[in-house]
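During the second year of the project, the team shifted from modelling isolated chains to modelling whole assemblies. The rationale, set out in the original proposal, was that interfaces cannot be judged from single-chain predictions alone. As a representative example for this report, we include one of the complexes processed in the last quarter. Its constituent sequences, exactly as entered into the pipeline, are reproduced here:
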Amino acid sequence: MDLLLQNVSHHYGALEVMRDINLEIPAGRIVSIIGPSGCGKSTLLRFIGGLERPTSGQIVQVGEPPAGSLNPLTYVFQDFALLPWRTVEGNISLVLEDHGLSGAKSENIIADVLARTKLSDFRKALPKQLSGGMKQRVAIARALAVNPAVMLMDEPLSALDSQTRELLMDDLIALWARERFTAVYVTHNLQEAVRLGHVIVVLSRRPGTIREIVEIDRPLDERQMGDADLEKVQKQLWTLMREEAAAADQELIHA
Amino acid sequence: MLSPDTTQNGGTDQRTVRFRGGGFAPKSILWIGPVVFAVILVVWEVGTRLGLISTLTLPHPTDVLGTFADLWRTGLLWEHLLPSISRFLVGSAMGCTAGIAIGILIGLFSHVRAGLVPVVAAIFPIPKIALLPLFIIWFGIGEGSKYALIALGTFTPMVVATYGAVDNVDRTLIRMGQSFSLSWASIVWKVVLPGAMPGIFSGLRVSLAIGIILLVAAEMLGARHGVGAYILEAGSLYDLERLFAGVIILSVLGVTVSFLLGQVERRVLRWRA
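Output from the structure prediction step:
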């Protein structure tokens, strides 16, 4: 299933936050969206998943989601959004309970996603007992449990320290190598965008428009930390964004 | 630089950095409470025995204890306590259940909120005791008026606490539920309600304390048995020992309710850090 964004524009009252965004999200690829703070990248992600409506323009699904997908458009949130009163397995079963699966079937799904995210030993733990990285792995396991057609990731690593971030990036790449899932990955971190994105979309500051779309050919599993070519792309992106970021920073002072 | 020995360092002054952190972190010190109680009792006993405190103003603690023992022996204690406990339980169960239900409706539906919040705000400041004569006309002099008084008194604080608690449920958790296409009922039942539990429990604490106060007020008007009736009778006979015995029963009732609630809260809110 592909996604198409057609002429997406958005206003908050008189404030224009997004102007005429056209974008294709092809199946099986990770699209990174980067941009300075306040450019509306998280808002754009909420449009894509139907949590908010743009003032004009539309999001179109091309083709059917794969059979057995319980929730085709599935989010991974920056702050994990785990229910603190449910254990790890309880948080995952939460998103399965409304689908009328048999007990054995949802038990299989839970065991499978926990194994894939290396959480099998922590089934009965409560979120408060887990580190930030573990919490986000639970959120990723929860997203995998509904077998999404597209994963919508809203700064999933931004609340984590840089070492945990590295580890989780490796995990995400390993997961992608197995599943070839489609993802939209919103981040302000250039390094993450370059490591994880097949395509990198650079948004301008408010009103957000697409400034540039950069494709990276190198396969995900061959990208290493400190790769010279990737560093070059990252630098190129930074030159693109630098002025925008500086201007966006100034804007906040007037806001 | 790091040498602790000042003389070794070319005469440059060295001193340990002054500690200025600490404090502002309540610790649980279990023995102080009972000791304070004991000291008060001893001062009181000695004071009344020596005549420093007139027995017209305060009875001897030991006499109060004696009265209490009499109450126990004659079975009068249960004759007064059981009706009180049952009035408290029935009245506050009605008030709190209704309060939680209305509070949740206000929290979930804007129309209900717009309609009922002003009504609750209007009822809240009315001293419910003032309505007791009215309740006696409406519900009779029997148990009905007492239930109604306690129920109304616990209802309003429970409504306010509950809708505040629902308002405070983390919106990102609700968005998460929507993003996984959970049904509306699932979101309310599995996200909103558990999320509102901490606020509901603090509302219960306030409401149940108000319930005990109103229980006594209700029993002072038109009750033959009950702790309130017992205290009123002792007061009009100026029987200080019995008056104090009654007050102590109320204190113990309050502490017990608060302890039991704390136990339930610890179980239900185990997930909290």
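The radius of gyration of chain B is 27 Å. DSSP finds ten helices and no strands in chain B.
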